[in-house]
Amino acid sequence: MSNKLQKKQAPSIVVKPTIDLTKINTGALTAGLSKLTIPRLFYQLVIFVMDGSGSMTYEGKTGKSKGDELSDSLIDTLKRLKASKNKNCFDVSMYAYANESICVLRQVPIKDLDLTKNYNPCDFITHYNSTKLGETMEAVKQECNDYLKINGEKNAQALIIVLSDGVVFDYDLSLKKCNELKLNNKITIASIFFESVSWQEGFNIDDLESYKKYMQDMASNESLFTSTLNADEIRNHMIKSISTVSKIN
């Protein structure tokens, strides 16, 4: 009986391809990565509604006009938002009001906002010997409703920050508009009474507490209202309001 030798096949060797890192187009890779965006966790519209009446041209606590103090506080607040890890979640609008209603800034993502500008509301107002808020709140209401409708399937909400340094002449109408907005549980109103170093001519200092109460009643709750002479406290109240509503640190 003859022995038959069977040849065994040599095991196959799998050669894994290697990456030559010297041949990677790093410029193209960087460009590609730069286009990647972190998905938005939420859609937060913040609308600043600023008194631009004549009294906002008066000197504030720092020696600047109250309008300039407000602009500085606003820009500081927005810089903080723009530097936050959630910056792509915020959109911003601004209005100024007096005898007239002016849209200072149409809705823009916070990341695209130009913070080199001055946002003194008095710079946008031509007729300023009265303080009428109702027309502006109607425009704000429409903007909020449109924003929430467009982002209806998303985690979306709106925060309105209203500031006045005196008497709102059309208070009943303004409060009515605020109460209409409060009916939507996705809309929150914060308010600030920016007090004066010296009280305005023609108004009784004894009524000051009533004017503060008017502004407080516009807010969604007492914690979202502040009354202050200090522009830094205005900034802090803005930041606190945004953080509270957006549930971020």
TrEMBL record:
Residues 45-248 form the VWFA domain. It comes from the Bacteria. This is VWA domain-containing protein. It comes from Bizionia myxarmorum.
